[in-house]
Amino acid sequence: MMMQPNVHYAELKDSYLFAGIAKKTQKYLEEHPGQRLYRMGIGDVSQPLCPAVIAALHAAVEEQAAPGSFHGYMPECGAPFLREAIAAHYAERGVDLSPDEVFVSSGASDELGDLQDIFARETAALVIEPAYPAYVDACVIAGREIVHLASGPENGFLPAPPQDARAGMLYLCSPNNPTGAVFSRAQLQEWVDYANDTGAVILFDAAYEAYIEDDLLPHSIFELEGARTCAIEISSLSKTAGFTGTRLGYTVIPKELERKGLNVNSLWVRNRTTKTNGVSYVLQRGGAAVFTPEGQAQIRAQIAVYKQNAKVLTDALRRCEIWYTGGSNAPYIWLKCPDGSDSWGFFERLLREIQVVGTPGEGFGSCGEGFFRFSTFADPQDTAEAARRLIALLGNSTN
After folding, report:
1. What residues make up the domain containing 363?
2. How confident is the model over 368-396, as a mean pLDDT?
3. Max CA-CA distance within the chain?
4. Which parts of the chain fold into alpha helices (H)?
5. How far apart are CA 203 and CA 231, in angstroms?
6. Average pLDDT, stretch 162-167?
7. Residue among 119, 195, 185 at smallest CA distance from 158
8. 73 and 139 belong to one structural domain
9. How far apart are CA 82 and CA 86, in angstroms?
10. Each residue of 114-159: pLDDT tens digit?
C-alpha cells in the first residue's frame, strides 16, 4: 500500500510565525546591505551562560575524557542528581515533590508537543488566545480539535474557565507568552478546580516563572490546592539561565494524577523510555549547577539585566502614550498598535523606518490582531537604542 502522509500538516499556516519574521528581516537586509537591526522580537537571550554553569560543563567534559569517569547513555527520565536538585528547588518554595516526579527534557517546547502522546486523539485541547503558536500547531499536526478561548484587555488577557467542558487538555501559560499576564492565586485556583471537576488535565507552561517579582503570585501551579490531581508543569532553563542554545528543561508529573485508571506519571515513564535516550550527561551537569546557591545568584543577576531592559522599553512606551501590559513579572511587553494599525503593518513600519524588529500580535491568533510583542532579552545597548528610536518615531502617536 502507498504511504499515506499526515494530511494535517496541510492545515498548518504557510510558515511558523518566527520563520516568517526571519524571512522578512532577511529580505530587508538583502535590500539594505550593512543596515543594523535592533531585534526585540524572538525570545532568544543575549547574556551568556553564567560562570557556575560554564565551570560545571567544563568539568563534565573532562570527566568524559577518562575511562573511570566516562558516562554513556543516561537514564531516560533524567539523572538522579539533577532530578533531586530540581525537587529541592521546588521544596524551597514549599512545593513537595519526589525526584521521580521530575522528568528532565531537552526543553519546554519539545515537551509541550510530546506530551500529546498521552492524550487520546479525540481529546480536545483548549488554548487561550493570544497563544504561543506551538501549542496550536502541535494540536493541528496531531489532528486534535482545538477550543479557542478568547482573551483581551477586558479580562487582563487572563480569562476564567469556559462554561462548557469540551476540552480535556488545557494549555495555560503564566507568566504568559506573548502578553506578559500572570495568573493570581485566586484565578489559577479557579482553573485547578475546573480541571478537577471536569476531569481535564492542565498543561502548565512555567517557562518564565523566574521573572515573577510579586510574592503574591504563584511560581508553580503546584502551590495551588488540588493541582497534584489535575496538572502537569513544564519548565525550561532557556529564559531562566540562558540555555536557549544549550537545550535543557524539565516536566513535573505528580503520582496522584490519574485518568481512566491509568497513572499519568507511569505513562510518561513508559513514553520516555520508548522514545528517548535521555539528555547528555554534560548538559545535565550544567543544569544542576543552576540550582546551586552560586548558580542561583548568578542567574538572578542576569535576569535583572532583562528586567532593566523591560523598564527601558516600558518607559519609552509611556512617553509615547502607547497602551501596554506585561514587562513586570514577565519578560514580554504586549502593546496596542498605535494609530489603529494592524500588527503586520506596524511590524513593517518599525522595520523599515527605525530598524526595530518585534513580533506581530496576529501571529499569536486572531485575538492578537492590533497588538504587538516586544521581547526584553536583547543586549542592553540595543534595547536602549531601540527605545530611543521608538520615542523619535512614535512620540506623537495616539491610540
Report:
1. 14-43+296-394
2. 96
3. 67
4. 17-31, 51-63, 80-91, 108-114, 133-141, 185-198, 238-241, 264-275, 281-290, 293-319, 343-354, 380-394
5. 6
6. 91
7. 185
8. yes
9. 6
10. 999 999 999 999 999 999 999 999 999 999 999 999 999 999 999 9
Q: At what angle do helices 80-91 and 281-290 cross, to 10 degrees?
A: 20
Helices then strands, counting H and E runs in the chain, come out as: 12, 15
**pTM reported for the whole predicted model:** 0.95
Rounded CA-CA distance 65/127 in Å is: 46
pLDDT-above-70 percentage for the chain:
99
* SS3 call for 72: coil
Tell me if 351 sits within 8 A of 279, measured CB to CB: no
pLDDT beyond 60 at 398: no
Helix 293-319 and helix 281-290: axis angle, to 10°? 70
pLDDT band for 52, please (50, 70, 90 cuts): very high
224 shares a domain with 118:
yes
179 and 289, same domain (yes or no): yes
Q: 3-class DSSP state for residue 142?
A: coil
> Which burial class, exposed, middle or buried, applies to 357 when counting CB atoms under 10 A from its CB (0-12, 13-18, 19+)?
buried
Phi, psi of 195 (to 5 degrees): -65, -45
Asked which of 246, 272, 294 is the last residue of a domain, the reply is: 294
Angle, helices 51-63 vs 293-319, to 10°: value is: 140
Count of CB atoms situated within 10 Å of the CB of 276:
17
CATH number of residue 82's parent domain: 3.40.640.10
H or E segment at 168? strand 167-173
Any domain includes 4:
no
Work out the angle between the directed axes of helices 343-354 and 17-31 (0-180°, nearest 10).
30
